[in-house]
Amino acid sequence: MSLTKNVLVKNALRAALLTTTLCATVPATSFAETVLNVAQRQDPQNLDPIDTFLLSWGSIASNVFEGLVFRGEDLQLQPGLATGWEFLDDETRIRFTLREGVEFHNGEPFNAEAVKYTFDRLLGEQGEQGPQRSNYTSISEVIVIDEFTVDFMMDHPDPVLITKLAGYGAMIVPPQYIKEVGEEVFDMKPVGTGPFKVANYQPTVGVRLEKSDTYWNGEAQMDVVDIRFISEDATRIAELLSGGVDIALNIPKPSVETIQNNQNVDLVSVDGPTVVINRFNTQTGITTNPLVRRAIAHAVDTNAIIEAMLGGLASPISSAQGEKSFGNDPELIPYAYDPELAQSLLAEVGIEPGTEITLDFPGNLDTFREVSQVIAAYLGQVGLKLNVRPHENSVYFNDILPNGKTGELYYFGWGGWTFDFDNTAYLLYHTGERQNPYIEDAKLDELLNAQRATYDTKVRRESLQAVANYAYENVLDLPLYNEATLYGVHTHVQGFVPAPDDRVRYMNVTVE
């Protein structure tokens, strides 16, 4: 996704300012310092929590900033800068008790005023210039009760809010520092409360993080984390294999075997948030018939695709979510590969052998392009001729998909760092949503609305599982796989815990 024009202009100004406010290169490391060298594909363009939605921001700033809530690599929520919270006044108000004795990297105290400033800024004029504000508009106002207590007044229920407070736009920022240095300097040299502070950030080159000596929750094991932006996959992997970096993020599938064959480097894999499915056009063509959709679902061997095309670095799915997703039903199993059943179902509804159908997808997805050819081969074995039709990326997402111009099948891939099925299901199944050009179903609307209207996790889980089961029974999609998040890690690195959502934390990492 691209940033808005305003943000692009703003970034250009920040980059110009950087040349006069920061060093031109990443400072040299002294002999006594312990250094962790990291490479990642993308530069987040600035480090302000409200100005970006990029995973490349999370892999840096998760070490610099903290939220009221903390979510670890196990995806469990726990207290962060808030020690606790409670829902009041029929869940229209959430009271947060704040942690005492915490300082920002510049010595500024963390307190209720900092929390109020953070969300006033996020929901105000400054936040409007970035992509994060819309995630938090359920908050109508933040009220300071005392130095370490704040109330969030809710405009409407937001059952995913507590999770969202653990990431991205909700990271707490220092009021006085921003007022003193200005927004442009803060984007390049931000201050947070995390275990590392930003020593230097040079766009397109890298960022140097240094251990904070005042961190409230322990001490980082390394003095410095030197993160380099290496956009070329081959160069990044070469640096990993040669020992130029200790950890590499964003491992491309073609490099997996090379890493696995290197005795000095481990390939670390963890199921991430991204799922890939084929959706059915339920309004036109032969896929309006649920038996045809079921035949297609049973004709494709998704396990074989995962092993042969993805090297086993993905997991089978039975709905448009992985097993880590809130709302996943572990008792729902993927459609079985059964070509004989597929053929009998097609014959039952009178589909002639050689009938042509079409699969639309964004043409820049090289891996899925290959997967689509395998799907075509499977469907050919049961008598269907699948035409694969690639489109330019913006045309696909801005015209073909939302305007219902697809063939009988079409690609859908979706991430969502919240790991909550609402993040995907509402877009896929609720009437009128941009990503849902074909389905209008009162039952699905009722289930989706019910789970959005409450903070009760039991009600939400049951509703979301019911959505997944309804989609499964009516074969609204052909779930393919849940992609893995891959890291390359040198064997001399200890204490590295892979983050499913790329929000890597380096506090406990050491290099032997």
Describe this structure in words.
Helices cover 31% and strands 23% of the residues. It has helices at residues 5-21, 55-61, 112-123, 125-128, 161-164, 175-181, 183-188, 233-242, 256-260, 290-299, 302-310, 339-348, 366-381, 393-400, 422-429, 442-452, 457-473, and strands at residues 35-40, 69-71, 77-79, 82-88, 93-98, 139-146, 149-154, 196-202, 206-211, 224-229, 247-248, 265-280, 314-315, 355-362, 384-391, 409-414, 477-490, 493-494, 510-511. It is built from 17 helices and 19 strands. By secondary structure, it is of the alpha+beta class. Helix 13 (366-381) links the parallel strand 14 (355-362) and strand 15 (384-391). The strands form 4 sheets. Strands 1, 8, 9, 10, 11, 12, 13, 14, 15, 16 and 17 form an 11-stranded mixed β-sheet that branches. A 4-stranded antiparallel β-sheet has the order 4-5-7-6, covered by helices on one side.
